[in-house]
Structure formats: structure tokens, C-alpha cells
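Researcher: I need the complex structure. Ligand is 6-O-phosphono-alpha-D-glucopyranose. Inputs:
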Amino acid sequence: MCGIVGATARREVSEILLEGLRRLEYRGYDSAGFALLDADRNLLMHKRLGKVAELEQAQKLEPLHGCVGIAHTRWATHGVPSAANAHPHLSGNRVAVVHNGIIENHEALRSELIAAGYEFVSHTDTEVVVHLLHRELAAGKDLLQAMLDTIARLQGAYALAAVDAEHPEEIVAAREGSPLVVGVGIGEHFLASDPLALRQVTDRFIYLQEGDVLRMTPTSLQLMDATGKPVTRPISTISVEEDTGGRGHYEHYMLKEIHEQPRALAATVPVEGAREIADSVFGERAAEIFDQVRAVQIVACGTSYHAGMVARYWLEELAGIPCNVEVASEFRYRQRVQHPGTLLVTISQSGETADTLAALRNATDPEFIASLVIANVDHSSLVRESDLVYLTRAGAEIGVASTKAFTTQLVALLLLTLVLGRRNKLDAETAAEIVGALHQVPDCVEKVLTREAAIREMASAFILRHHALFLGRGIHFPIALEGALKLKEISYIHAEAYPAGELKHGPLALVDADMPVVAVAPGDDLMEKLKSNIEEVRARGGELYVFADEKAGFPEAPRVHVLGMPDCPEVLKPITYTVALQLLAYYVAVQKGTDVDKPRNLAKSVTVE
Ligand code: G6P
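Model: Output:
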């Protein structure tokens, strides 16, 4: 989604802005731009459709200089991707604005501003903001007051940053519904929608809270909350490990992130060698809250939703706790009925997904006894607004298709199953076995990674296909869903997943030699039933790709290709089978030549509805 970078310093900032935009590229975007104020108070700007590289080229051909500037990568919502619709937007050749989010009342404001004589040159909702600001500035207000009076007119979600030629050292910013963070330098200040964008210039950050408004110069910071009261917010230091460290020797971030899973999983399991999981790993109030839990409602989007679907099997089978799982965009708009004593669990890599956040915000007492978030980004909105938190330790995930965040979410959800389960049906022996299994998870995933070459070879069979079917049963049905999602996200092959028992109720009609069928077939209780489903596919001329436990000895046959999976504890199989399917999707995409890390039309963090 859109990204913001800003800088006010006593040195040239164009390269800082461009590097910030490069670091935000992974989030997905279609155009980019920046505006600078030069020493003579001229507002200068480059905007380009396409990649940040196009913008760099523009800067190379026609270098712009300045010590204050704002920059943006845009992911189109209102108005097609184009240079005209790219940010920054200007008004009166003196004020420039960049914006993440959506201004819902932009049509009414546009009519009002046109009536007041403003000319619109883009089709964006953002352009109303810059003209509103200009009108306030033209009335003689300072930049901060102009921003305060402008946002009072806005409905919707925004992170805004603005510069004005008449206030040459200043950047003002405001946050409502979209994240913003200040980077604190020495005699300089920076701004971004994601601290990753500023890691090259600082490791000290101040996270703006909802409603905060900011004015910054190289040497001063002025912050006020939604009520206009001056506030100070703490400075957090981000450690080096939280940096992405680049792609290393890997061709893509996605491959690097798949390979990082053993380390990420090990870091997410709380204490090495522990035999029991303490409630307190979920937060100070965890024990008191968990004692009251009678049911769990999980809410999430995309890959995180699939993690929730896996957790439902664990919570009901192992812990004996009723669990519902729903996508956030549905949950938030529905009249709901909950069991008394329900804990709301949100799952989110970014901690900023708009629908998940809205679901948390509209799910209040007495509907839920409390909220828990499983997130990968500390200080994110979901983390700040939930009662309990479990931070996965995946490290920064750059590839749009989520990999290590998903498997670490599964670890966190298994931990939740353990702490809730011991208050219910889970006996001590099974709990100890699960904890023991969790300590083996890095090794088990390492073993799956040794199958990489075989999976790459299997992938070549998919590159000319337009469709694929994924089948799974029980807890491996959500894994089939996740495998299909990975394939469609990055290879653009239409992939659908079905519980294998549903095959006869529709999808079998699609099966022929052109429709590869991937079966997630660990040797669990449902293996024999799955074997019959596989036969049904084979009998219709379908080509089968079976991921099965090596030791189950799944028979190879004509048109049945088996990928033998290494032995590992039963409870870890949703994790290990996922890793194999990630590799399958990755190698299909690589062989098709798609943009693996930044698939078309998708965004890493979906901060608008
Ligand atoms: C986007 C990303 C997905 C992610 C989903 C939910 O669609 O492309 O990879 O699963 O958002 O994001 P979250 O940060 O809430 O897990």
C-alpha cells in the first residue's frame, strides 16, 4: 500500500527520501514522487508512474536539491495509476501534501473547493487536502494551525505530511487510521509510514498515536493529541536484528524468508528447553483473563486468517475450547452472537490491517472478555490497542506473500492452545509432548528445506497451467488453502482449495489432464479417505502432486507424483507442509518470471478498507 517518507535537515535530503521509498517498495505501489523545498523557497517536484527507479532516473536527469522534503509511493484507490495522480499533490505552488488512507467525504469537499475557485488536476481524494490546507494558509494561519483546521474537515483514514514554501524548515503531519512514525536524528528529523524506511538514517523512533498532529523542524518536535493538548511520546530504539539485512545471496526476499523460518520459529518459541509455557508470555494480565475464557473468536485477513483456521482445530481438539474463525471484513459488519466468556483473538503480520483493526475496535465489552493479538510488528496499532499481545519473532517480512509470519503465527497459536488447554481438556503428558515438539520445529523445517531441489523440479509442471486444485482434509484443509493462496498470489495461476471430501460436490467436474491437483496428504487418520479422493482424480485423467509423509510410503503411479516429506511430530505437520507449499509456489513463480516479491495489484500491508 502507499508509503510516506519525509525529512527536514541541514543537509541535502533527496537521497534519503529516495532510499526511504526504495525500502518501502515491498509494500506494493504503482507510482512514486517527491517534493523538495530549495534554498530559495521554491517547491520542486518529480513524479513518475511505475517504479522508484523511474523516479531516480528523473532525479539523475534533472537533479532537484533541498533540505526539506516529502515523498510517497502510491497504491491507487481513487483515480488510475498515473503521474498526475501520484503524490505529492500541490496547491498554489506553495504547499505540497502526501497522504496514505482514504478521505471519505472528498466529493463534497471537492465541490466546495471548486466553488471557491480551486482547480483540480488529479482524480485523487488527496487533492482536496492540499487545497484545504492552502485555503487555511492563505487566510494567514501558520502551517500547524492550517493542518489542524484541515483535518477537522476530513472524514476517513489518513496519514498526512505537508510542506509549505512559506514555512521553509517545517514538516507538519497528522495521523488518523494510518500509521506514522518520526525518526529522531541529531539535528535532523524524519518521518515515515514504516520505520523500515528510515533505518539507514536512525534507529530511534517515536510512534504517533491515533489523532496525533506533529510539527517538526531539524531541531524541534511539537506533538499534540487529538484534543489539541501538547503531548510527549516515548522514543523507542529498534535493534539491528529487526532490520531486514537485505536479500543476502538470495534472488528474492521470499526465498530468503522461507529459509529464515527455522531461526524465526526458534525465536518465537518462548524459552528454549522449557517444559511448560507460562501464561505471562501473553502479557501481564494473561492468567486472570485466560481463567475466564470459555470460547475463542479469531479474526484476521489473508494468510493470517488461514493461521486462525488451523488454530480452530487445535483449540477444539486439543484444548476442548469452542472456536470460531472469520475474515475481518465480514466480521466487522455483521450482527454477531458470542458465547459468554469469549476471548477475541486477532492475527496480523503487520498489526495494521485496516479491517482487522476495525474489527478489534468494534468488538467491545460485553461481547468479549478481552482481546489478544498475535502480531509480528511491535508498536503496531493492533499491538497497542489489544489487552494481551504475543509478538511473533519472524523479523521484518518483505515479500508480499507471507511465509515466515504465517508459520510463526502457528507457533503462537499452538502456545495459546497449550495455556488455554491446561485449564480444560489438555492433560499434562500431551502438553509436555507438544512443548517438546515445539522445540523440534526448527530442525523439522530444516529437513523440509532439504527437499527444495525436488520441489523445484515438481514446480516446472505447473508453469503452463492456468488452474490448479489443492486438496486437504482436517487440519490440512487450511494448509491446502494457504498453498493455493501462495500459488495464485505470486504465479497468477488460478488456484482453489477444497476439503477433499467436497471433491465430488463440484470441483471434480473441472478435473482433466490440464488441471493439476495438489494433495496435502500427511499420514494422519484421514489418509485412507484422502487416498480414495486421489483415486477419484486419477480416474478422471487428472495429474496429481501428492505431498505425503515419506514413511507412509504413498505409492507412485502413472500421473501420481509423490513428494516425500520428512518425519516430524504430528502436531508440527501444518507448519512443515506449509513450507513445502511455499517452495512450490515460489519456484512456479520464478519459472514463470513473475515479480515474486511484489506481485501485481497486491500490497503487503492493507491499511485501507
Ligand atoms: C495482505 C498481504 C497478505 C496478508 C494480509 C493480511 O493481503 O498481502 O500477505 O496475509 O494482507 O495482513 P496482516 O498484516 O494483517 O497479516
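Model: Summary of the prediction. The first strand starts at residue 3 and ends at 8.
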